[in-house]
Structure formats: C-alpha cells, structure tokens
Amino acid sequence: MRRVALCAAFVACTVAGGALAASSLRVSLQTQGHTVPPGGAWAYYLRVSQGNRPWRGTVDISVRRPTGKLVDDVGRFAIDGTLLRSYVWNSADKGTYDFTVTVTQGGKTLRTITYPVLVRHG
C-alpha cells in the first residue's frame, strides 16, 4: 500500500473584535500535498481551535485561480473543531490553483487561509 505524505499549513492568528478579542484562533489544514493529479480525490483535514479547545462555527471552502477568479465553490460546512473531506479535481484542470478556506462566525469573516495547489497531468 502506498503511503501519501501529508503536508501541513499551519496558521495561527489573533482575531480582534467581538467575543474573540482577547483570544487566538488557530487554523490548521493538512492535505495530501501541493501537487495533485486531475480527476482524483484529494483528501484534506481541517482543524480550528481557540484557546486549545475545538472551535464551533462555519467554514466556506472554494477553489480559485491565483488571480482570485472563482473556479469552484466547494461548499459551506459547519465545523465543531475538525472537518475531514475530499475534493475531486476536475480532469480538465491544469496549472496552479488556490484552495481557500474562510472561517466565519455569525456572518463575519474571521480568517482566510490559502493553500496553493498544482494540478499536473502525467
């Protein structure tokens, strides 16, 4: 069985305003790597915590070109600390994309992280 190395992008930030004023929000995204084949499932694991406790809220996930152009609105998901899902890259995709995770609560954006992905044929 082939093992897939996990790459991780860790982002820690302090969010000002509202109930989050004095505490930090940590967003961690682990994936199967920055280079993916088109047409295959690509797993990702998202963890969001605040003060070492699982954070509850909503995440919006999208795939964009580096220019910001929306390619795919993956979806909006409720999260209670963790989210494990997969994304199937379109077989016509080629080049560089940004896998974007936006953490929201009460309709307000708290943090956005971008994970660059290269879709490579052959």
Architecture overview:
A hairpin with a 2-residue loop joins strand 4 and strand 5 (53-54). The protein has strands spanning 7-14, 24-31, 35-36, 41-50, 53-54, 56-64, 70-80, 82-88, 95-105, 108-119. The protein is elongated, with a radius of gyration of 15 Å. With 122 residues, it is mainly β. Residues 1-22 have low confidence and may be disordered. It contains no helices and ten strands. It has a single domain (7-119), classed as Sandwich (Immunoglobulin-like), CATH 2.60.40. The strands form two sheets. Strands 1, 2, 4, 5 and 8 form a five-stranded antiparallel sheet that branches.
Secondary structure topology:
Layout: E1 7-14, E2 24-31, E3 35-36, E4 41-50, E5 53-54, E6 56-64, E7 70-80, E8 82-88, E9 95-105, E10 108-119
Parallel strand pairs: 3-10
Antiparallel strand pairs: 1-2, 2-4, 4-5, 4-8, 6-7, 6-9, 9-10
Number of distinct beta strands: 10
The fourth-level CATH homologous superfamily is Macroglobulin (MG2) domain
Q: What's the structural domain tally?
A: 1
Largest sheet: 5 strands, antiparallel
The name CATH uses for the topology is: Immunoglobulin-like
CATH architecture: Sandwich
Strand content: over 45%
- H and E string: EEEEEEEEEE
Distance between the termini: 21 Å
How many helices in DSSP terms? 0
Average per-residue pLDDT, rounded, comes to: 83
Helix/strand-derived category reads: mainly beta
| Low-confidence runs of at least 5 consecutive residues | 1-22
Question: What's the CATH class label?
Answer: Mainly Beta
Rounded to the nearest angstrom, the radius of gyration is 15 Å
Relative helix content: under 10%
Which outline best applies?
elongated
